Amino acid sequence: MNAAAPYPGFFISFEGGDYTGKSTQVKLLMQALAARGAAAIATFEPGGTSLGQRLRREVMHGEDLDPHTEALLYAADRAWHAQTIIKPHLQAGEVVVSDRYLDSSLAYQGIGRGLGLEKIEEISLWATRNMLPDLTILLDGDPEVLVARRTENPDRMESAGLAFHQAVRQAFLQIAERDRQRIKIRQRIKILDATCGVEELHQQVLSLVSTAFATRAKNQAVPEQTTNGGSLSDLGAREADTPAADSGQAGLQQL
């Protein structure tokens, strides 16, 4: 383990409203990590575990739920997901990439449903034993534009209406600004424009991830620390030593 995190692995989450392309970017990042030899797993919320699949059916496709019940079901899903999937893989030194995590509850239930940001954060942190991602990539875009990407019948959350999804978008941006003000040295949440082309957005994701890996490598208390199949420093250290590290192209050579 190292001084920067309580586990030797690296935790990345993708956040954003519906139709922002999170699943596509997770898939492309996983391909890049595999090509680089890094041990990595992709997961998602809600439903990343067998218990989560049952909760997902109720939350996304079941009867209408009141906001408090909805929030607690998401918290239960996240608690088991963190304990049985995310934590073991991080402790094994792997990269974990999750399509949604805690910030989705803050945006959808805390602000979108009006339950309160602080209350939902308190519940979620308690449920996960205070486990936060090392890097959160927020894909941002206007819901009125992004809904044109819909190819299937919407689930209960997707059917909530434009006003709700506009509120959720603003909630995510508020959460990112809150993160920026809280953490002056290292911001966890990075915002990318979800309306970019898929490949352009992928390159921006690679830049953020490589820079984050390089920062971790610099801060490692144990230099030889590795992920299964490749060290975090292998993924980003060379990028940190080049002038491109501060540019939009930083780290593309590393993934």
Rg result: 18 Å
Number of helices: 9
Termini separation: 23 Å
Into which percentage range does the β-strand content fall?
A: 5-15%
- Name the helicity range: 40-55%
Question: What can be said about the biggest beta sheet?
Answer: 5 strands, parallel
Low-confidence runs (pLDDT<50, min 5 residues)?
Answer: 235-253
Spatial strand sequence of the major β-sheet: 2-3-1-4-5
Textual characterization of the structure:
Helix content is 51%, strand content 11%. By secondary structure, it is α/β, with parallel strands linked by helices. A five-stranded parallel sheet has the order 2-3-1-4-5, sandwiched between helices. Helix 1 packs across helix 8 (198-219) and helix 8 (198-219) crosses helix 9.
Which features would summarize this protein structure in a list?
255 residues, five-stranded parallel β-sheet, 9 helices, disordered C terminus
Short account of what is shown:
By secondary structure, the protein is an alpha/beta fold. The protein has helices spanning 22-35, 50-61, 67-91, 102-112, 117-127, 143-146, 162-182, 198-219, 232-240; strands spanning 10-16, 40-44, 95-99, 135-140, 189-193. It has 9 helices and 5 strands.
Layout: helices, strands, pairs:
Layout: E1 10-16, H1 22-35, E2 40-44, H2 50-61, H3 67-91, E3 95-99, H4 102-112, H5 117-127, E4 135-140, H6 143-146, H7 162-182, E5 189-193, H8 198-219, H9 232-240
Parallel strand pairs: 1-3, 1-4, 2-3, 4-5
Helix pairs in contact: 1-8, 2-3, 3-4, 3-5, 4-5, 4-7, 8-9
